[in-house]
Each structure stands twice: as structure tokens, then as C-alpha cells.
Amino acid sequence: MRRFALILLIWPGVLIAQELQILSGPQILNALSGRTVKYDNGATQVFEPSMSTQYFSGRPSSGYWAIRNDKYCSLWPPSDFWACYSVQSDGHKIRFVGNSGDVTDGLYID
């Protein structure tokens, strides 16, 4: 019984250690271009290869995205402010982390 309990204590640590990897600029481009992500809040976002993006949460919203200094950046008119985020992924889940530490998680649905 002790061996079984020890395995259960070690196993979660192994899963966490292999979860999300920080992506570089080229990896972010590859991870997002032509993909659709569904977020924890139920919204979806399409990342077009043309660098336009569509966000759907009750009603559609159109914006633009870019890669700058190994970060994903987005612009949502009429604002002219580019918000940038570090990106982490495991190929199934994707996480955007803002400069203030805010986190947005999503899953690829395409």
C-alpha cells in the first residue's frame, strides 16, 4: 500500500513538469496562424494567417494580431493600443500571460 501511495504523490508532479512550454516568436506564429481557440469563458477566437483575428462572445469583434519580441500582440479597433502577451502551449492547451500576470487559457478546437 505504501508503494501505491508514493506513486500517486509523484505522478502529479511529473504531469505538471511537462505541461506548458514558453513559445518563441516563430513558435507563436506557428501555434496561432490559421487556428481557432476556445477560451474558458466560452468565447472563441480565430487567428487568420493574414494577421486579422475574429473574437466571438455573444457578438463578433474584429481585430489584428502580430508577433513582437517573442510575444503575441493584439489590436482591437477603435483602440490604437497593442496589448502583448507571453504565450505558453502544450499543443492542445494555450495560455496567454499579460505583463501584469493576468492569465487567459484556451484550447485549440480546429
Task: Please describe the structure with a list of short key phrases separated by commas or semicolons.
about 20% helix, Lipocalin, 8-stranded antiparallel barrel, disordered N terminus, alpha+beta, about 110 residues, single chain
Characterize the structure shown.
This protein has two helices and nine strands; from the N terminus they run αβαββββββββ. By secondary structure, it is of the alpha+beta class. It has a single domain (20-108), classed as Lipocalin (Beta Barrel), CATH 2.40.128. The chain has an eight-stranded antiparallel beta barrel with strand order 2-3-4-5-6-7-8-9. It is globular and about 35 Å long.
How many helices does DSSP assign?
2
CATH topology, by name, is Lipocalin
Strand order of the largest sheet: 2-3-4-5-6-7-8-9
Low-confidence stretches: 1-17
- Total number of domains: 1
Rounded Rg: 17 Å
Report strand %.
over 45%
**Averaging pLDDT over every residue, what do you get?**
87
Order of helices and strands: HEHEEEEEEEE
- The CATH architecture classification is Beta Barrel
What overall geometry do the principal axes of the alpha carbons give? globular
Distance between the termini: 43 Å
Q: Please write the CATH class name.
A: Mainly Beta
Please summarize the sheet with the most strands: 8 strands, antiparallel, barrel
Kindly state the percentage of residues in helix: 10-25%
Structural class: alpha+beta
The overall strand count is 9
